[in-house]
Amino acid sequence: MSIVTQPLKIDNPIAAGVDTHAEVNVAAVIDHVGRELGHQSFATTPAGHRALHAWIDSLGTLTVVGIEGTGVYGAGLARHLTAGSVHIVEVDRPDRKSRRLAGKSDPIDAYAAARAALSGRASGTPKSRDGNVEMIRVLRVARSSAIKARAVAITQIKAVIKTAPDALRSELRDLDGATLITRCAGLRCNRGPAPTPSPFAKRSPRPGRLDDVTAATKRTLASLARRVHHLSDDIGELDDDLNQLVAETAPTLVAMFGVGTDVAGQLLITVGDNPDRLHSSAAFAHLCGVAPIPASSGKTNRHRLNRGGDRHANRALYTITMSRLRYDPRTQLYRDRILATGKTNKDAIRILKRAIAREAYQAIKTDLITTNIGT
């Protein structure tokens, strides 16, 4: 812990801002008119969180704390302050223009976070990260990386086969899917005699040297195929856990047409464990990037695509929209009515995504309120 400036003890209402990092949090405090009272650094440990909280309380009556990065480095501090009944708001990183004008340092960013919280410019409620939705989020992290690793391994298998010796390539080139992976996993390679073990060796001797290129290629394909099998088993186990958690957490959402475990899980993560942080379906639509943005000028009256918000949630709503357009007669009829007014197919998809966001918000709010009451 290192004190950068000598804080001034006052009794007036104060606001604090915190610039979070992996190893240290920099806190800054201002009074109710924005005067700087002091800043200090604290370790990102439970003891550091307690010291930060006590230091801020020693300067006056705390009204609000603005934290930059509550979803990453500031998650632990946010949980600690929330448990202490402190009012917390999420502060976005200052834009580039502001940083060019004011400069860049940890104390500067911390004071900027405090001013944003005090003025009300930052008013977002952080996710609580203490319930089923947080469990779903961390499981999806493991599942996503496993899926990517499996795809990479399959791509590498096919690339190795393309340059394999002719006999091995002829054996495998017409296979695909599970058949190819199973065949590759069963490949055995020829090796020379095992080396004579050293009396001073601390581990068992390695197998003999690979004989030729064919043996090395078989060894590579077998290793990659076994990796695919292992990752597939891991993905299956994660899917079982996610199916159970999502079904228990959001039965109303999952019951919606076109919503499966993956889509429901993403929408739940976007909202968080505390749905009360979103005051309306319009706020949820903005969060998902499906709220129409006015783009009118003169006699032109139109709206354009919203390129902001959570793009993963936007993709989830797009998946629901495409599923309904293909299989749901009611959605198809609604789309036709929109097209009859002179709007384009892209306009119809945007309108449908906004309508689905409204429906999904009500379902999520109902489900999470019920879940929180039950726990």
Tell me about this structure:
Strand 3 (24-31) and strand 4 form a beta hairpin. This protein has 14 helices and 8 strands. The chain folds into 3 domains: 2-119, ATPase, nucleotide binding domain (Nucleotidyltransferase, domain 5, 2-Layer Sandwich), CATH 3.30.420; 132-249, no CATH class; 252-374, no CATH class. The mean pLDDT is 89. It has 375 residues and is of the alpha/beta class.
Secondary structure: elements and pairs:
Blueprint: E1 2-3, E2 13-20, E3 24-31, E4 36-43, H1 46-57, E5 61-68, H2 75-83, E6 88-91, H3 96-102, H4 106-119, H5 132-162, H6 166-172, H7 177-185, H8 213-249, H9 251-254, H10 261-271, H11 281-288, E7 293-294, E8 303-304, H12 311-327, H13 329-340, H14 345-374
Parallel strand pairs: 2-5, 5-6
Antiparallel strand pairs: 1-4, 2-3, 3-4, 7-8
Helix pairs in contact: 1-2, 5-8, 5-10, 7-8, 8-10, 10-12, 11-14, 12-13, 12-14, 13-14
Short summary of the structure?
The protein is an alpha/beta fold and 375 residues long. It has 14 helices and 8 strands.
